[in-house]
Amino acid sequence: MTTITSTFTENEKTSISKLKDCLPDIIKDSGVPENYALWGVLLDKNSTDERLDIILVKFLRAKNCDVSQAKEMLTKSLKWRLEFRADTILTESFPSDVFCKVGFIHKHDKKNRPVTYNLYGGLNNEEVFGNLDRFLRWRIQLMEKGIQLLDFKTIDQMIQVHDYNLITFASYDTTAKTASKTVTQIMQDNYPEFLAVKFFVNVPWWGDWVFKFISIFLSEQTKAKFVVTSANGVKDSMLEVIDEDNLPVTYGGKSIVPELENKGSADQPPSE
């Protein structure tokens, strides 16, 4: 099976080698332990683990292979992980009655990449976003759970689905905006190049305004991965990436997902 490292350009290979040489300084400046492992991969300049190269190239690609900028980004990200306690977040518990219908991981796409679903409609904003720190920790935990499903050899990215069904203009209030802005910034700063495709489905008529707001905080590389569709185009768009057997019934597939069925985001699959 072809590994991701075989797709690296010569420039990327050279940049990875240079960034790897910077790892002792990155570890020292960030304050993490000398034997620190990022997503289960030891940050060792002498490592021959190809997974390390794949992680490093993510930071390089986020900075157009500028080694100095990638070094700074990785250093800041490790500092954030230390301060945010990101490495212990998988052991934390959150109220399932609040978050089970907000987001979850369900199966994979045609390339075996995990798919995360984020549901924004019909929420009690104060209950979900009112405690911003709790929401952020839950959302980062969901991201870290998705990363656990990557092998960093043949799979290093995931699919995200953002469903706006049942959302109203009034529900996109200051609390929701603040949460959205903060999560977007955290993801861009600390999880570079993890996104393969992001579907925005069941987008309301006023959705353009929301996307313009969100886009302010996104790189051009990230925005290029967006697929925005109304209810009528959901099934066809998603079936291009996700097999019908793995696609939830709500979106026209055959897979039953309790979180979606119980939420009542759609009684029938979208029309073709």
From TrEMBL:
Where does it sit, as one GO cellular component term?
A: membrane
Q: Which domain of life is it from?
A: Eukaryota
Principal subcellular localization: membrane
Q: Which InterPro entries match?
A: CRAL-TRIO_dom, CRAL-TRIO_dom_sf, CRAL/TRIO_N_dom, CRAL/TRIO_N_dom_sf, PATL
| SMART domains the record matches | SEC14 (SM00516)
The CRAL-TRIO domain covers 86-259
Subcellular locations according to the entry: Membrane
Q: What is the protein's name according to its record? A: 23678_t:CDS:1
Source species: Dentiscutata erythropus
